[in-house]
Amino acid sequence: MTGKLRDLNEKMLHYRDSIALKNPGSMLATLFKALKEPVVPPAAKQPGGKYDSLYAYNFFKGHYWDGISFTDERLLRTPIFEPRLDKYYKTLVVPEPDSIEKEVDAMLVKSASNKEMYKYLLTYFVQQYINPQYMGQDAVFVHLFEKYINNNPEVDWFTEKYKKYMTDRAYSLMANLIGAPAQNLELVDTAEKPRPLYDINAPYTVICFWDATCSHCKEVVPKLDSIYQGKWKQEGVVIYGVMVDGGKEAWVNYIRANNLKDWIHVYETAAQRDSGYAAGKPNYRQLYDVYQTPILYLLDKNKRIIAKKLTYDQIDEVLNVKMKQAAKP
Predict the structure, then answer these.
(1) Dist. CA 312–CA 208, nearest whole Å
(2) How far is CA 191 from CA 254, 264, 275, in A?
(3) What distance, in Å, lies between the first and last C-alpha atoms of the chain?
(4) Which residues make Cβ contacts (< 8 Å) with residue 287, sequence separation at least 6?
(5) How far apart are CA 78 and CA 71, in angstroms?
(6) What is the pLDDT of residues 230-252, one digit of tens each?
(7) pTM (predicted TM-score)
(8) Over 90: is that where the pLDDT of 163 sits?
């Protein structure tokens, strides 16, 4: 049965190829080309005469778009093109911002002469990376915004509301990209004493933005404190806890009731908030993209952002990796 299915599939592929050769500019030929995927050479024809997974990956990726034109807007009216894009970026492109940016730039250059295709691709990339699935890929959206969208009158298809959303989102993300220096937070503790973030001298700092009246924070913060007291504190980690909402009284009461000792507990006073607003300075919500709670950031000794918006368990995993790397001779 398997052999028969293989033979039938080969006949179907040959038929599609013959149609594409006879009618290269037809819609049917375009569909058949879009349905076709690269066939990796058998092991005997690969370098060294044996199977090489890296060669197979590079061959498949390098030939994935063969026969497909990024100026053919007819593809946009088919159910084939978007799933093909999805597969390419989810399974073939290295999920690092630099690699993704290189790929999207190349596609946008190829599609530039066809406005509909260009419009579709740019919109697709914005929607994929404005709130990405994986940490750090928001840098791709910032790249798209700065290079293709901001102050570009030719990008005229987004609504005013969505333009504002993209602009606000881009400026919120620019200040907290992975690998960038964290913005200083000049906040005060429960006794109104200044406790700037950059005064902390520690190999790692965890910033926790939280609200003592938030039900999710009430669930997460005690667990965060447990892992801190049981492990992180001995490893030199410092927690810089920022009160976001709920009021000072509820905040202080929760700290005392839950014995959250050894944290650096800070908040922004009303005077600080009003002064910053009057001066046109971005506040910590904008600088750290804090629009829900709790939110955790992990910083290195130089206050560069290692990780953000992960759970405390995920932060612990990152710390384990970093400490193992630091312990290597």
Answers:
(1) 10
(2) 15, 12, 20
(3) 57
(4) 172, 175, 176, 183, 185
(5) 15
(6) 999 999 999 999 999 888 999 99
(7) 0.83
(8) yes
Query: How confident is the model at residue 324, as a pLDDT?
Result: 86
Residue 151 backbone class (left: φ over 0; alpha: ψ -120 to 50; beta: rest): left
- Alpha helices by DSSP H, the chain: 2-22, 27-35, 53-62, 81-87, 97-111, 115-129, 138-144, 160-174, 215-230, 248-257, 270-279, 284-287, 312-327
Q: Whole-angstrom Cα distance, residue 318 to residue 305?
A: 12
239-256 burial, b at 16+ Cβ within 10 Å, e below that, comes to: bbbbbbebeeeebeebbe
Residue type, 166: M
DSSP string, 150-189: TT-TT---S-HHHHHHHHHHHHHHHTT-TTSBPPP---B-
Residues sharing a CB contact under 8 Å with residue 222, sequence separation 6 or more, in sequence order: 258
- Under 8 Å between Cβ of 227 and 312: yes
Structure tokens at 183: 């913005």
Look at the block and give the residue holding tokens 């910032």: 142
Q: Distance between alpha carbon 213 and the CA centroid of its chain, in Å?
A: 29
Neighbours of 169 (CB within 10 A): 18
Question: pLDDT tens across 258-311, in order?
Answer: 999 999 999 999 889 888 888 888 889 999 999 889 999 999 999 999 999 999
